[in-house]
Amino acid sequence: ECNNPSGLIGDSSCCDYETVGKLNIDFSAKLQEIVSMPFFRYFKVNLYKECPFWDNAGLCMNRDCSVETMDKQKIPEQWRSEALGKVSMPTTNQVPMPNRPVKIKDQEFCAPDIATDEVYVDLKDNPERFTGYSGPSADMVWKAIYEENCFDVSEEMTAGCQYCESERSKVPKGKGQLQQLMEGIARNDGPEESCLEKRVYYRLISGLHASISIHICDEWFNQTTGEWGPNLDCFVSRVGMHPERLENIYFDYVVLLRAVTKISDYLAGYEFCTGDQTVDKNIMSVVTELVDLVKQCPPTFDEKLLFQDGGQGKKLKNQFRDHFRNVTRIMDCVGCEKCRLWGKVQTTGLGTALKILLSYDDASLKGHRADGVLSRSEIVSLLNTFNRLSESISAIERFGVMYQQRLREE
Ligand code: FAD
């Protein structure tokens, strides 16, 4: 059974699927317009860092896994100098060295992409879609990401959060056990979790995973016909048959929408600095239209409900942040360049949303107090990630129609 979802989205504040579906009609058009503009297309990224967690042999050699990089001269000077933004650099005048620990500010949910061999990529020219990347390498990455959902807060924690050492000790070393873990994930799609923070963490990751799966199924390469197009069976088996995965995509969407709402004044006052005032004005007018749209939305997520439990809440919040940073580091282990690129865009986008929601109150995101809160890379990631989720929601609707049509024909 594969029906379009209905009812309330768990852990959101008062949102149902139908409302999000309707909101998304306007958002998808505006976001498409935004991500087509050079400011939001040109992304600075380091694609060549070593995986810090395991030996990453066997890169995907398919043509569709590779990324086309850009000539740096096409990038306005202001964007290049700002490129690492305030996320990344140590405050001293040292050049970052491979083994020197880099200071990361407490409010950051993403690991800095420091290195000398970053490149610029035009996201529009390198769309996220089916590449053929799969097997043990992809399995390892997803497994490592889900394992980050273990928080060490057991004994003192009173709010129902559990230390998952027992789960971690079950974590497989060999291939057979890895299979077991994946089957476990498939069976349950995550444990029934009583702790809101753990649930939120799991939903964010599972929603991202499901959204990536939808992009793959929506732009699938049919090796028999040599054509690109949607693959309904792929959608049904990977996402449609798992209501909780569908729900988690909508959950990610409402979290991103809340983050964009929270920085709407900041965005409205942002200087885009392309070096051409007419272009700047065009960007500003489209961004203002987006801001007007978000301001009309009902509240979609209440971040104030998280980490309420005094000292323990603080401890849990630090772990939540550190674990999410690890997820952004795990992206260096993705064995396919294009998947790594979009993995980095979207984990940075989610990390930026978490930073906006959990590191700043509303007042500190207004006026001069907010100067330099977000780097260009963070803004680009945030809006591209919101757009990818928006495209997933549109694709869910299209796949739903295809599925009904298939049922009628059978
Ligand atoms: P996978 O998607 O690999 O999932 C592994 C297991 O996790 C499943 O068997 C299931 O038990 C569980 N699971 C699946 N979905 C969820 C969910 N939403 N929530 C909870 N549990 C779940 N491939 C491309 O073709 N193009 C890309 O752009 C691309 N980007 C990628 C980016 C990243 C960061 C990673 C790690 C992989 C990417 N891949 C990409 C590979 C792709 O995600 C799959 O791993 C691959 O297609 C194999 O899919 P699969 O059906 O074996 O299951």
Write down the overall geometry: globular
Radius of gyration: 21 Å
Q: Kindly report how far apart the N and C termini lie.
A: 14 Å
Give the DSSP E fraction (strand runs of 2 or more residues). Answer: under 5%
Regions with pLDDT < 50 over 5+ consecutive residues? 83-101, 155-188
Description:
With 410 residues, this protein is mainly α. It has helices at 17-35, 38-41, 77-82, 85-88, 136-147, 165-169, 175-188, 196-218, 232-240, 243-262, 264-268, 277-295, 310-330, 337-359, 376-409, and strands at residues 42-45, 119-122, 220-222, 227-229. The chain has a two-stranded antiparallel ribbon. Residues 83-101 and 155-188 have low confidence and may be disordered. The structure holds flavin-adenine dinucleotide. The site of flavin-adenine dinucleotide has 27 residues, from α5, α7, α8 and α14.
Q: TL;DR?
A:
This protein has 410 residues and is mainly alpha-helical. Helices cover 53% and strands 3% of the residues.
Please write out the topology.
Blueprint: H1 17-35, H2 38-41, E1 42-45, H3 77-82, H4 85-88, E2 119-122, H5 136-147, H6 165-169, H7 175-188, H8 196-218, E3 220-222, E4 227-229, H9 232-240, H10 243-262, H11 264-268, H12 277-295, H13 310-330, H14 337-359, H15 376-409
Antiparallel strand pairs: 1-2, 3-4
Helix pairs in contact: 1-12, 1-15, 5-7, 8-9, 8-10, 8-15, 10-14, 10-15, 13-14, 14-15
Flavin-adenine dinucleotide binds near residues 132, 133, 134, 138 and 245.
